[in-house]
């Protein structure tokens, strides 16, 4: 781990933007900007619930996760064809590349779309083709994690996995998203066990709004490798010790937490305490079109509010590559380039 020279605080935003990083927690449907949503609605003849982009954007005010999920779900109705999924993914990857994201692991779900009569292969083929093209055209690598919707049943999650199996090679893992409270990880124990047999990586949203107990069961019952959000872990010292000991990464999304009122202000976010405690925390954008910014916006606002330093920036960028599912030799190359960036930044 590099010892980073202190820099003047006014130069931090430049460093945060410049440093190479990985993004590990973003839902591709949550990157659908109102402008593209309206364009796709028009292309597909789907009526919009709002008259224009401005009024749609002004509806993005939430008190809790479920408020957001309802609006987010309505937004997905414009996605009908493989090209729609391609265009949405391409737009995100171009935006992420501009923030110096070098590798992204994208969450998506199929249950939302199959519920609207769009088949699993339309979704996965569109997303995957955009990831393949972005590698050569934008210099960013990207891979796909299929999230089960936890407000639906175990049986529906099994159907979702079975429908995706012909496209297994286009996925790196499975995750668990949607309404957390009342839907503990153990509801999906058998589906995750099946995904594990298929050599898929495993992650789950836990401890966003839900209790530390959900983080324990994501680890011990689902056997996940990373926890998405996990901000409630600080309420449980034994859990914190476990996360530190086993170097379980938390993919933290500060602006999401702010917009969904998990914390009353960014200044009260616990990311600084996590880093202090030795947690492998990362910064991510979750649903950037809805929560007020892409990854660099998350970095700059969080650093300003918490008074974090260049050393924290290095630590967070390093964690992002360490916590990724990139194969080890490629991972080392990203880490070497990260070190170079910090050694030459003056
Ligand atoms: N939490 C749970 N489910 C989600 C989220 C989130 O932040 N974003 C999209 N689906
Ligand atoms: Zn999320």
Give the secondary structure arrangement, pairings included.
Blueprint: H1 12-18, E1 21-27, H2 34-44, H3 53-58, H4 65-75, H5 82-98, E2 101-108, H6 111-114, H7 120-138, E3 141-149, H8 154-164, E4 173-177, H9 189-197, E5 201-206, H10 212-222, E6 226-229, H11 237-245, E7 250-252, H12 254-259, H13 271-277, E8 281-283, H14 288-291, H15 295-306, H16 310-322, H17 328-344
Parallel strand pairs: 1-2, 2-3, 3-4, 4-5, 5-6, 6-7, 7-8
Helix pairs in contact: 1-15, 5-7, 16-17
Characterize the main sheet.
Answer: 8 strands, parallel
What is the helix/strand order?
Answer: HEHHHHEHHEHEHEHEHEHHEHHHH
Broad shape:
globular
**How confident overall, as mean pLDDT?**
97
Counting helices, strands and paired strands, the structural category is alpha/beta
Overall radius of gyration: 19 Å
Total helix count?
A: 17
Can you tell me about this structure?
With 346 residues, the protein is of the alpha/beta class. The chain has one domain: TIM Barrel, CATH 3.20.20.140. Helix content is 50%, strand content 13%. It has an eight-stranded parallel sheet. Helix 1 packs antiparallel against helix 15 and helix 5 runs parallel beside helix 7. The radius of gyration is 19 Å and the shape is globular. The model has no long low-confidence stretch (mean pLDDT 97). Hypoxanthine binds next to loops.
Quick take:
The protein has 346 residues and is of the alpha/beta class.
Key features of this structure:
TIM Barrel; 346 residues; alpha/beta; 8-stranded parallel beta sheet; globular; 8 strands; 50% helix
